[in-house]
Amino acid sequence: MIENLIIYENKRVDDIYPFNIMHCSWELRTGIYLNYERIIRISGCKNTYFIGRELQLKSFINKFKINNLPKSNKLSNTLFIDGAISLTSDNYNTIWQSTDSNKNVIYMHNDTIIGYYCKTIDFDVLNYYNLIDQLSPLIINSNKIEIKDIQITNYLWDTLNNIESMINEDIKLAKNHNLFYAPAYHNVFAIAPNNIYIGNNVKIAPSVYIDASSGPIVIDDNVVIMGLAGLIGPMYIGKNTFIKMGAKIYENNLIGNWCKVGGEVENSIFQSYSNKQHDGYLGHSYIGEWVNLGADTNNSDLKNTYSKIKMRLPHKTIQTEKTMLGLMCGDHTKSAINTQFNTGTVIGISSIIFDSGFLPTTIPSFTYGGNSNSKKYNIDQAIETAKIMMNRRKVKMSDEEIAIMKHYFNNEQ
Question: Where are the alpha helices (DSSP H) in 106-252?
Fold first, then answer.
């Protein structure tokens, strides 16, 4: 029995940089749903709470109108689940079956703790920094359960590995999509239409090519797809997103809500509210929110030597063991026309990129230019620019988001 569900951030949250700056780990888009949306849908638990870093948690609670105050700190039959995991129904069934024991349970995956089950616990749901201290007594006299075949986002690029499997998982949870019906879409060329799922009020122009023979394609509510666009699955296109004329969108893409996408895109994720409207290549990349990639912005995702790619985060360098990896881009960053990003580039938040030539593979937040000698973007101007872009979509920038930006402006090196 699970009466309470608590989704928490693990202590490695800095490793999903730059996403971690503006977001909690459970906001990662790993399929049709964000991680936390999927966990709640699979569990069906009505009493759900969140534990995370103070600024990001406040921003999340405000954005999604979350009630994060349990009636009592004394909780019974409580499941703690790491927000960085992409939970499946099979994973949850294993967890559910383990709660029949009278003991507390620790859930493991390859020596990493991914969750806890507590019969009873006195717990401060708002105290992120004491999370492990409060749960550590559970290690004594607890059952340990290995959860196999579960996806953990240790680094942001890990989200690119399992797009097809997570779309297939999420299709089982989504009830508002119908199978593609050819007569409703005149002169749309659809391959494997029984693997194409359509939401409400979707507009697809004649001459669009949709190929779901390699994986499912889910087109959510109010999406508009202009003529001569080509889509190859697996793919998810989020609500109110606009696919531009002649777009070439290949396999393994997740495009969030309210995006505008054109040009050539492959194995990439857009969080929400971001634009890549024009020609140019984006591949093996993760794009945060409120990003605008200017016309003919391109990224490399393969070295000429075909060697493994290192990703250089502010706090560590990781040998990824991948030969194809592109751009990890933080929220509110903008690129000028003809911008060229190197293989394995990481950019923080609120940068304005306009320098010519190939840029460094690590670009800090609030960079104005792009090269290593670029000046720092003025924080007041950065906030004002963010407000203007958000107002264009009738979204008001919250005080919590402003506080995060100011904090990182003053503290990120």
Answer: 131-135, 163-173
Q: Please report, to the nearest 10 degrees, the dihedral formed by the alpha carbons of residues 356, 360, 363, 369 taken in order.
A: -20
**How many Cα atoms are found within 13 Å in the side-chain-facing hemisphere of 51?**
25
pLDDT digits (tens, 9 = 90+) for 136-191: 776 667 899 999 999 999 999 999 999 999 999 999 999 889 999 888 999 999 99
* DSSP per-residue codes, 138-169: GGTTEEEEE--S-EE-SSGGGGGSSHHHHHHH
Q: In Å, what is the CA distance from 318 to each residue of 19, 45, 310, 362, 392?
A: 16, 37, 6, 13, 38
Question: What digits encode the pLDDT tens for the residues 273-325?
Answer: 999 999 999 999 999 999 999 999 999 999 999 999 999 999 999 999 999 99
Contact 324, 344 (CB under 8 A): no
Per-residue DSSP letter, 397? P
User: Strand pairing partners for 302?
Assistant: 324
Between the alpha carbon of residue 397 and those of residues 53, 56, 90, 274, the distances in Å are 19, 14, 38, 15
Name the one residue in this structure whose structure tokens are 């730059």.
Answer: 18
C-alpha to C-alpha distance for 396 and 406, rounded to whole angstroms: 17
Q: Which of 73, 70, 82, 109 is nearest to 24 (CA)?
A: 82
Q: What is the pTM of this model?
A: 0.96
